[in-house]
Each structure stands twice: as C-alpha cells, then as structure tokens.
Request: fold
Amino acid sequence: MSEPGQINGKSSEVVISARGVVNGFGDRIIHDHIDLDVRRGEVMGLVGGSGTGKSVLLRTIIGLNKQKEGSVKVFGAEVGDADNVSMRALQMRWGVLFQEGALFSSQTVAENIQVPLREYTKMTQNLMNEIASMKLSMVGLPEDTAKKYPSELSGGMKKRAGLARALALDPELLFLDEPTAGLDPISASNFDGLVRDLQKSLGLTVLMVTHDIDTLRATTDRIAVLVDKKIKIGTIAELRKDPNPWIKEYFSGARGRAALDS
Amino acid sequence: MVSLTDVRPVEERAWFKTERRDNVLRFIVGGDWTLPEAPRLDPKLRALDLSAQEAEIDGKELDKLDSAGAWLLLRTKRAMEDGGAKVRSFVIPESYGPLFGTLEREHTAPPTPEMERPPFLYRVGRGFMHSMTQGYEMLGYLGRVTVETVETIGPQKQLRWKAFIHQVEETGINALPIVGLLSFLIGVVLAYQGADQLRRFGAEIFTINLLGVSILREVGGLITAIIIAGRSGSAFTAQIGTMRVNEEIDAMQTIGLNTVDVLVLPRVAGLMIALPFLTFYSDIMAMIGGAVMCYFDLNITFPAFLRQLQGAITLNTFLVGMVKAPVFAFVIALVGCFEGLKVERNAESVGRLTTRSVVESVFLVIVLDAGFSIMFSILGI
Reply:
C-alpha cells in the first residue's frame, strides 16, 4: 500500500514507466517511441482522437498487448517480459476496469467481486460476502445488487460493479478504460466524484482513458495526450497553451471551453 | 502458486488486544491491518467477547490500513455497539480517517444472507411448467410460420430468393464434405458389423440386404438430420441470436421488415430443399462405404454388390427414407430460428439457447423418426 503521506503526487516515485514504446498493426505505426511516467498517488488522464491508440497503450501497460519496441515497467517490473509468477504478482497489485465492466456473465455481482479474493487469499465465505458487500457500498451500489447477474444491470451499474471487482484486492494502481462513456451526465459526475474519493481514501494511483473533458477536469492531476503518434503530458493549464491544432481544438473548442471555463 | 502474502509481505503483523478496567473495554489494535492479514484476524475477532458498558478503540499504533482492515475494524466497532456498549473514543491515525469515514458512511446495510435453494418439488414443478410453456410457444410459432409460408404462395408476398439461395448453399453445398465423410464411415462400420454376425450363419451375402434396408430407410436420413441439426440448426440460433444482441432485429422491425419473412422463411425453405438432397447424397456415400468394406472383407465385387442390392430393396425403401427429410428439415430450421429469436440482449443467452436449440432439434428428429416408423408399420409399407 502507498504511504499516506505520499498521496496526491507529493512523492516522485514512478509507478508506471514506459520508454520508447512502439506499437502498430502491420505497417501502420500508431505509437512512435512514446515515453510515459505515472507517479505514485496521481490521477493521470489519457486522451486522444479516435484511432490514436489510447486503449492499445492501456492494454500494452497491463500486458494484454505486446509492444513492438521499447519497455514498459510497472512497479519496476518489466510487463512484457514478466514471467508467469512475477506477472501474477503485478496483477495482484493493480485493478482494471474495462469499458463495459467485463463482468463474468455466469456469476452474480457478489461472486464477481469475490473472484480475486478466492484466487489469492484463503478467506472464509462469510468474510468474502462481507467484503463484497462493503465494496458494493463503496462504489455506491445498493445492497441487493450483490445477488443480481450482470445481465440484470444497467450500463452504469455494470461499470460500478466492475470497479468494485477491480478494487477487490485493495490495489495500489487502478486502470480505468473510458469509465464515464455511455453514462448520463449525473451518473458520470457521480462516478468522477467516486474515483476522486476512492483515490483519496485508498491512496490509489489511477490511469484512465477518457474522452470526457468534464471527467478530466474533475479527477485528473495530469493529462497525457496522444497526438501524431507521440505523447504530450501536462496539466490542463499547460496543455491549453500547446500550439498543436488537435490539442487546441480539444481544450479550446466549444465543448472544451464550456467544460473548462465554467 | 503465488498468494497475496508473497506479493505484499506484511512488515508488521496485525495484532489486537483487549483490556478491561471496571466496565470499560479497551480494544487496542496495531500493525498492518491489510487484506493479506484479514483471513487470520477474521475468526479471532468474531470470537471476541465484546460485552461492556463503555468501550474505547485505540488504533494509534496502526501502521497500515486498507479497506479490508477498515472493514474488520468497523465490524468490531458495530458489534460493540450492538452489544450495548457505548464507544466513547475511537482513535486511528489521521491519514486513514477519510477511508474509514467513507466506509462508515456508505456501508449501512448488513450483508445479505445467501439465497436458499428452492425445495425439490418446487424445482420439478417449475421445470415442468417451463417445458409446457416452451411447447406452447413453439406451437404458436409453428402456426405463425405456417401462415406466413402459405402467404408467400399467394400474390401479395414473395420469397426472398437471394437469401434462400444463400441458405441452400450454406446449409447444403457447404455441408457436403462432412456429411459425405461421416456417411461413408457409417457404411463401413455397418458392413463390417453385419458381415461379422452374418458370417456365423454362412449368410454373408445378406450383409448387402442389411446395408440397403437400414441405410436407405433409417440411417442415412437420421445421420444427415443429426449432423445438420448440429451444424446448421445451431448456426441459425447463433446468427439470429447475435442479431438480437446487436439490436439488429429491433432495427428491422422499426424499418418495417417482417422478421419471419426476412430471417425465418429463407432458412426454413432453404433447409427443406437442401436436406433431402443431402440425405440422398448420404445414402449414396454410405452405400459406397458398405461396398468398399464388402469388397475387402467379404470379397464381394462391385457388380455382385449391385446385383444383390437390386434384389434387396425396392423403390419404396428409398422413398420411405427420403420422405422424412423435408419434415426433419422443417423441424430443425424452425427450432433453430425460434430459439434464435428468443435470445435476450446479452451474449450469454446466445450460448445457452444455441445449446438448447441443438438438443431440442436432435430430440425432435429422433421422436419424429420413431413416429414415422410406427406410422409406416401400421400402413404396412
């Protein structure tokens, strides 16, 4: 777990470190030697236009996609080369929320949350039920959700349940893939608050892919923008001064201004 | 296997102790109250005697606290309060205040008890009612498809020829290799087993009679229908089911397309054309398999095989097998489409209903075959 004194980016310890990452499909390069550092305790947003490979970069960092060149280190361990044991060790320290929640459809929400607990700890069923119920209340889902199957949940509830599963092992690092896409504005803003609250109380490091400029403003400390196969990192204020036309349009277009200047 | 304790070694083992002075219970905790320690702490905490008038919780010596540890602490605190004790002080390091506060605020309801398994008789009854409803719905669907099929014969509607031809190709022509190979092998097996038994009576030549009658009347049609139920019936359910999940069917309906017209009729008609041809092909392949086996096992040459076969079967033997094929095709296509349209809007139900579609159509094919046998024997064919 992170030291409580190091919350909110005060520490300079680097949790995710990508160096010279190259990704592409066939001859088409989508990431051309990208560097990315995420420090402990910060919330980093990852944005970019459609097809710039935001999800690909996220998948590379969590080891679902092998980069063509370069290295990705999480907690100092190389992700791509991680052998089975050390990869599992890494996986226990992070939680991933996929776009649609990616809940296991044959299991109830409570069983979904208990999957990592059952795999990695030796708890009694009683304690696991209690922890599942606690996680549900942490993500703001009603108590009776525990017994429901994913097919009975709405999109927003699936995301919350997915987040509860991602938090099951009290991870130090959380990956969120478009956490607010497809939610109504009220749910989306609740979700932002939730991420911020959890980040504060658990001292999490968060890397999130998002399009939502409101979410960026509400939750992130720094933002990484994928543009022209490269990455540009900075706070919102810094990025608004960037001369790149796409970044200009993104932060200073009608929607960007409406969200940021309000 | 890696376990959590290997990855997050506990630096300071979690501990707790209780002290009683007068009527005050002091509950002192320290160390790493984290997830790896939770399984060890849990039973000990449950076993604690927490009855007192007043209580103090002292967590000053906590080194680490995560949400699992916070939950255990909160649970113990609540157990004290439920036992009638007044918690007059509660101290934990400041940095863990927000975490504990969030938990205490958000988590109010007690954990829900496990759902009880309904009693045996209830489950039997529910299963029975479910099959009855299923049968009833299927009957309704059969009616609808029949009406729509009859309408296509009339002037106001026309069969979608392109889709129909596509289905014939997909379910008929593309199935030729697998049907051919399996039928050939069935012919080989039947001839071998038949020859083995009949040789004991010196009646090897009647292997050909056995082959002719059993393949043409029963085996050819049945084996083809079962292969196609597994190959095309399941494909119908999966295709239509996936369209259902993607809301394509809803889109069709809002555009004004009739789903039975667009999806079901071409499949039913296509399979009703394809399956008789496949059955005929299967008959031939199985006979070839039998003839090959007779040649190697019994030294019966092909001309001799054909001469004996001609004497063994009549045109009726062949027709009895063939007349069943369109009926089987109709049932397989109907069940496949019916289950496909019943898919709900989640991927899991596609898999479940595809399995059910195959089981149901194979079941119905065999039941119908038995029905045909009884009918033919009464009619004396």
